[in-house]
Amino acid sequence: MKSRTLQRVIEAVPTSDGAGVKLRRSLGQSAWARLDPFLMLDHFSTDNANDYIAGFPAHPHRGFETVTYMLDGHMRHEDHLGNVGELKSGGVQWMTAGRGIIHSEMPQQDAGRMRGFQLWINLPAAEKMKPAGYRDIQASEIPVVMLPGGARVKVIAGTLDVNGAITPGPIQGLATDPLYLDVELPAGATLTHPIKPGYNAFVYPFEGSVAVGPAHAARTLETHHAGVFADGDAVELAGGADGARLLLLAGRPLLEPIVQYGPFVMNSREEIEQAMSDYQRGALTAAHS
Ligand code: CO
Questions:
Q1: Fewer CB within 10 Å, N- or C-terminus of the chain?
Q2: pLDDT (tens digit, 9 = 90+) per residue, 8-25?
Q3: pTM, rounded to two decimals
Q4: 229 CA to middle of ligand 1, Å?
Q5: Ligand 1 centre distance from Cα of residue 68 (Å)
Q6: Residue 277, H or E segment
């Protein structure tokens, strides 16, 4: 086993998006802070309704996927296709913008805790203009695996593989082959997980701290810091003094040029100009333009 070491750390910065939703952005805070195929990771976490109540009114996307994972709270998704989805605690919405979607994501509560993540995953050039689609995945569809030693893992995408004992998650078969795990590690509990060589991987602790890398050379990663792994074929994680809860994400890099303008992510400047023009003339989501 070649255990992956920590290569760089991206501290999440406070920002806001939508109509003023307060959040922390690690990946995606700059072009440098991407990790192919992952474009962005936003983390929202608050007990104050003023931080989320304005939500994300209607806005477009083209060229990638957005994955919203709710830890606590209730949001409603509506899109131009007439889809309505209720995103509740523990649930996931996996939205493929493809050639275009116009949607809103609005809180369905005016008090209490709202916590979760939105991850942006790029699409390969061949899929950027495919029809939009989405899946609502209820908490009950997400396997929860208790491991010897105390770790608890929720398998959102890809397949959990602990010493050959595999647990597939509900999302499989995408071009970027994403692994998306929500991992809880009590103090000292460990998780060793294979990651294919050449794939990019990172970890994001959102509670506590985690020791990352081979035991003899582990480095501690604190809450709200994305830790990007060097290449190798496995990752090793251990819960810090107060334990940890973290996301572990990995995927096949697309190795294609990325040109981003806000909610449009394409391969060339011409394609971005086309997206802006399509949006302005109301044709972003049309089958033919
Ligand atoms: Co959106």
A1: N
A2: 999 999 999 999 999 999
A3: 0.97
A4: 28
A5: 9
A6: helix 269-280
